[in-house]
Design a protein that fits this description.
Blueprint: E1 14-18, E2 21-25, H1 27-37, H2 43-67, E3 72-77, E4 80-85, H3 101-128, E5 132-138, E6 142-149, H4 155-174, H5 183-195, H6 200-223, H7 226-246
Helix pairs in contact: 1-2, 2-3, 2-4, 3-4, 3-5, 5-6, 6-7
Bound molecules: zinc ion (ZN).
Residues 1, 57, 61, 111, 183 line the site of zinc ion.
Length: 247
């Protein structure tokens, strides 16, 4: 997922490497992650879950890039993440990298699916240790695994598991919506361009505009989430602007 361009380095950046992939964490990442979890009463656990989950998501993209011979680095900032291939210094999508449409689709899907694998491991761990997981259907269609019984650990461990499942499943599914610049938007573009090389990019922008608008209204009416409504409204507007600007 990348929502913004990579910010310039600061002296408060946290730098490390994971599987030889350089990772940089901008100080605003911690601030905005804490802000999103403020009021939950478990801000520290929340910030850890957001950090770990977004890192796993971006590692999915980075390892998929490596599969196609592309080195990359990861930047976490503004409660989101970027995986930037070294052949593309300034962000703006994977399109300028010499990868086929299907390779780009694989790379886009690898992020959300890394999160689903993590959620699967958590579910497996809970069941293996004698706990119980129920599957709730959000709006009757979106399956969200939910912890119902844990035979070990204290309240903090339970909160950790509940948050890990929610973030990796719910955000992963949201991220697959065909809205730019979410991963699903990249998948839709690469899919539609193959079906219709002349008009596929424009169709994917229309799909992004309409889906973003519908999700914004649904988030406000059904979830009561002003944050999500604002975010998807903004993304729909950006796609609409791209339509009128480029075509
Ligand atoms: Zn992603």
């Amino acid at each position: 997922m990348f929502l913004f361009q990579s910010p310039p380095p600061t002296r408060f950046d946290l730098n490390f490497s994971l599987f030889e992939i350089p990772v940089r964490v901008h100080p605003m990442f911690w601030f905005l992650a804490a802000l999103l979890g403020f009021g939950s009463g478990q801000v520290l656990i929340w910030v850890f879950v957001v950090f770990f989950s977004i890192l796993i998501h971006e590692m999915g993209h980075a390892l998929a890039f490596r599969r196609y011979g592309q080195d990359s680095h990861i930047v976490l900032h503004f409660a989101g993440g970027l995986t930037i291939p070294e052949s593309l210094r300034w962000g703006g999508g994977y399109a300028s990298v010499s990868l086929s449409a299907n390779q780009q689709i694989f790379i886009s899907l690898a992020g959300p699916f890394a999160g689903f694998v993590l959620a699967g491991l958590v579910v497996g761990g809970v069941i293996f240790s004698g706990g119980e997981i129920a599957v709730n259907l959000l709006f009757g269609i979106i399956p969200i695994p939910q912890l119902t019984f844990l035979p070990f650990g204290n309240n903090a461990v339970q909160v950790l598991i509940v948050m890990l499942l929610w973030v990796n499943v719910f955000w992963g599914l949201i991220n697959l919506l065909p809205v730019f610049p979410l991963d699903g938007g990249q998948v839709a573009r690469n899919f539609l361009i193959q079906l219709d090389p002349l008009d596929g990019a424009r169709k994917s922008l229309w799909l992004s505009t309409i889906t973003g608008g519908v999700v914004a209204v649904a988030a406000f009416v059904l979830l009561g989430s002003f944050y999500m409504a604002f975010l998807f409204g903004l993304l729909a507007f950006q796609s609409y602007q791209a339509l009128s600007g480029r075509f």
